[in-house]
Write a structure and sequence with these properties.
This protein is an alpha/beta fold and 239 residues long. The protein contains 7 helices and 6 strands, in the order αβαβαβααβαββα. It has helices at 4-9, 38-51, 82-95, 105-109, 120-128, 148-166, 223-237, and strands spanning 19-23, 73-79, 100-103, 132-135, 172-174, 191-193. The protein starts with a helix and ends with a helix.
């Protein structure tokens, strides 16, 4: 019998489309359902690469019609925590993975006061190294609890800040807590990423409702089985 966290992770991002994994912290001590120690993060990614498929480079998101016709995995990290740089990045580099870092743009601006988050200079370095930087809104508030104008500001201002810092990049957005806006607030051409709360739909059908899943931190014995199940879903449903 699988636990509830593993049951929520069971479905891939979409049938026949890349698997998208999301993490928060990679830290030796912090505990969270999507946070892992550095050793477990490395072992988890190695399991995914060996049993599911290779990593999808972020630049592949520029053209959804040219995505690989094989199972691939996109690695994403939310919130722009400093441990992503200290602990996750060396592991990503060793494994040859380029990831998407979803940053809270206000935290990047206030890095001097909030040293637990990545600065714009560090996010720029990640972008230059081949990683992608996406929006996790301005302040990481639950969008569906905000007034319509505030929902639009949280998204538009964060995307504009990334464009101003990094240039013309494909706009990528991850919804805080997995809750998308309740109004039409996501600009056309933006890929919007949810969590396991999102339905597993093809990206061309719902490009602003992309499902992500995770490696449950409290059920590591299930990781190989999950990878096999995710691959079985892709092979069965993409034929």
């Amino acid at each position: 019998m699988i636990g509830p966290a593993t049951a929520r992770a069971l479905r891939s991002s979409a049938p026949g489309w890349p698997l998208v994994l999301y993490f928060h912290h990679v830290h030796p001590e912090l505990v969270h359902y999507t946070s892992l120690t550095p050793d477990d993060f490395e072992r988890g990614l190695e399991t995914v690469l060996s049993r599911y498929g290779p990593a999808l480079p972020p630049e592949a998101l520029d053209d959804l019609t040219a995505l690989p016709d094989e199972p691939t995995v996109l690695v994403t990290l939310d919130d722009g925590h400093r441990d992503n740089l200290d602990h996750a990045l060396p592991i990503l580099d060793r494994l040859g993975i380029r990831a998407v870092f979803f940053a809270i743009t206000e935290m990047a601006e206030l890095e001097a006061q909030h040293a637990r988050h990545l600065s714009w200079a560090e996010l720029t370095d990640l972008h230059r190294a081949g990683h992608a930087v996406g929006s996790h809104t301005v302040t990481h508030r639950m969008l569906h609890q905000l007034a319509p104008a505030e929902q639009r500001r949280e998204i538009a201002d964060s995307l504009a800040a990334i464009q101003a810092r990094l240039g013309a990049v494909r706009p990528l957005l991850a919804y805080p807590y997995g809750f998308p806006p309740t109004v039409d607030a996501v600009p056309a051409g933006t890929l919007g990423f949810g969590t396991v709360k999102a339905d597993p739909l093809p990206w061309t059908v719902a490009p602003q409702r992309i499902r992500r899943t995770y490696l449950p931190s409290d059920d590591q014995h299930a990781w190989p089985w999950l990878c096999d199940e995710w691959r079985r879903q892709w092979n069965r449903e993409s034929q």
